[in-house]
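> @MW can you paste both from yesterday?
MW: sure, first one:
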Amino acid sequence: MLGPTQIGIPALVRIKPGALARSGIYLARAARRHVLLLSSAGTPAAIEAATLDGLAGQAIEVVARREVSAASFEEAAALLPALPARCDAVVGLGGGRALDTAKYLAFLARLPFLAVPTSLSNDGFCSPSASLTIGGRRRSLPCAVPFGVVVDTEVCLRAPEVLWLSGVGDLVAKVTAVHDWKLAFHARGEPVNDFAALLSDATVFQFMARPERDLEGMRLLATALMLNGIAMEIAGSSRPASGSEHLISHALDQTSARPRLHGLQVGTAAYVVSRLQGRDTDHIAAVLDATRFWDAIRADPFSLDEWRKAVRVAPEIKPGYHTVLSSRDCGPEVESILRTDARLQGCFV
């Protein structure tokens, strides 16, 4: 029999218009009165001002502020001894750099972490890991999920459209990731947590039913990405959210002269991988077509040579991590798809 599972989940979740200015109210209700605020470099002044005003309005003291320009283990570790003793929560505001740094710092300090993403480019804001560099090489480091998630859908709607498309790409990648997980079970007996897989699938298909870029669409995308973070926490691994499409993206990050946004890479790879897997292509294509995802790729096409190399390198990124790429030499199939698939015309040069 399987033993009971205990997981961490966000006790505070607010995904709605105007949520950013109410961050102070949410922290006060949680009895968190002294916070460290980490924000992404380049965060619009109006967003920072709204956050600070909301905190001040509830007498929440910002004991220290830092701007994060690069998400690294070294930076998070250096911030730890400088944390004021009275700090009782860490707030991450902005994009992935600040959120990952704040999440890992909170984990090291054993403090609650409040995630306040200002765009929805990937699922990292609620995942049980932090994407940080160590000595210049990117690593995924285990940590705790946030105690709270605050997503202001109005703020996210004002973010550049390409960031939303990146989030859409990261979301559809869960479809191929879950199937790769099941392939690993059949090939090697790797256990599948059925609830985590079900949760991942359900959140994706809820957004797929309404892939619109409006306030409701932002709510659905934010909810789906957040729950995928929880699915990873349930599974104890990244399997519900990351498969062969992520291995290709990681390979591109290592070998490409100019890697693109994570979600643009994995969304494109998910479409290609679905064809290798022989399933779900129509579902993935419907979302990417409806959101005009391909227009963003054609505006800045990928290198065909770099993708050839990435597909060769991908199975070596995580040795022992079985995916469809482990089942056969997929290189010739992928090259044929990239060259001949009508949807991908203009996406590779």
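MW: second:
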Amino acid sequence: MATTKAKPRRQSNAWVENIKTIIYAGLIAIGVRTVAFEPFNIPSGSMIPTLLVGDYLFVAKYSYGYSTYSLPFAPPLFSGRIFGSLPKRGDVVVFKYPHDTSIDYIKRIVGLPGDRIQVKQGQLFINGQLCPRQPEGDYTTDDNGVRMVRKLYMETLPNGVKHEILKERDDGWVNNTPEYVVPPGHLFAMGDNRDNSADSRFMDGVGFVPTENLVGRAEILFFSIDAEYPWWEFWEWPSEIRWSRLLKPIH
């Protein structure tokens, strides 16, 4: 009789332990996502050639401290940033779109508070200083199936950070802007695909990015796929993976 009574009790204890394990695992996952790393994917070509459509990356949430946007569902528990610090010029960051914080953007920070930013004849000037660019030949883009040839350049920012950009042309108003003065508590962000990027040059769009809207710094690609074929053609999956981009640091 004692043996038959102990069996249900052991089964009940096992269920309780399993539920506890699931809860603990969920809390750990939420904690990691909140304070350490969060995965993102790239849906558009505004950061080509640095980031491609179909790239999956980890963003370091601790890079610039924490704001309400560091938390799942962004509950309005506080304002500003805790342990806050500014990005460096050249950092690739994820931030919340200022006009709709449910939308994530990823761009490169080129301007810090107080900086004067201007684009003249397609070239970037920071505080009156030209950011030189060196030609590196042609680059064929594939943005959602549309193939186009662009000019590839290596641009150097005033702090010595070098990164590649794409250019289609050097005329038009986005390539000849007024001088923008970045206000306190804000940043100026641009896409590396300079003629195909909605960024801080568009004051009625992205405009200046509040530092509070920063989610974190893009650190490393953990997966990349060129979804050329329908998902159900599983036999094409191995050929669609961009193996050379796996575990690639983001600069």
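> thanks! The helical segments are 2-35, 237-240.
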